[in-house]
Write a structure and sequence with these properties.
With 270 residues, the chain is mainly alpha-helical. 75% of the residues lie in helices and 0% in strands. The chain is built from 14 helices and no strands. It has helices at residues 6-26, 28-36, 40-51, 62-79, 83-93, 96-101, 106-116, 118-137, 145-171, 180-193, 205-211, 216-219, 221-227, 233-267. The model has no long low-confidence stretch (mean pLDDT 84).
Amino acid sequence: MSATAWPRVLTALPAMLRVGFADAVAYRAEMLVWILSTTMPLVMMPLWLSVTRTAPVAGLDGRGVVAYFLATFLVRQLTAAWVAWQVGFEVKQGTLSMRLLRPVSPVLAFMIEHLAALPVRIAIAFPLALGLLLAQAREVLPSSAMGWAVAALAVVGAWLITFSVQLTLGALSFWIESSTKLVDVWFAGYLVLSGYLIPIAALPSAVARLNDWLPFRYQMGLPVELLTGALPPERAGELLLRQWGWVAAMLVVSNATWQRGVRRFEAYGG
């Protein structure tokens, strides 16, 4: 986006956020279904609790398991993205043309729509889960403002990676009939390697070493580990740098894929 476009974007931003929030409220039933589809950590929690009844697993006792999966559920709500399905649908239906005619970048519009839905997700999902986390495992949460700031930075990085990956996969719809199958493949890797279903500490050592260099851990596991005090400061700093390296890389890849795809879309009269 050119520098001259930013004043228009800043002027339009409040209205776009209001529209995005209104849409989220209007489609609250769909939002509720989406939130319910992200409750797998709450399903996995009792399963892992049953495993840790006899002895801790990978350093996690019962309280650690509760803290881990409640934090996972909360981070999932904050980092959810669905732009791959939006882009795929709008390319297929041709409605992306209307977005391209507007003065605000479609990518920025998608981001604002996602952010505008956060208050609804938080209002529905947070009270119970956060209350349980505070009641059951308050002592593992960050004890300083710096700890909370680092965890928040990791959550932002996780969202940016997730959004950029999905934008990249969604933009492949400019070339192939349906990119959602690729999203499913990516999501399968995410379920296993991000820490969403299996705590990062419980992964086999060889897989864990490889996972340090893959983006999945930084979409979920890292912010959860920072929220639950599972990482020493030096290790946290190292992983945070790797996460933001992935943020930078995926922003470049997603932007390049989107720009080339849009040129193809416009050339074929989309």
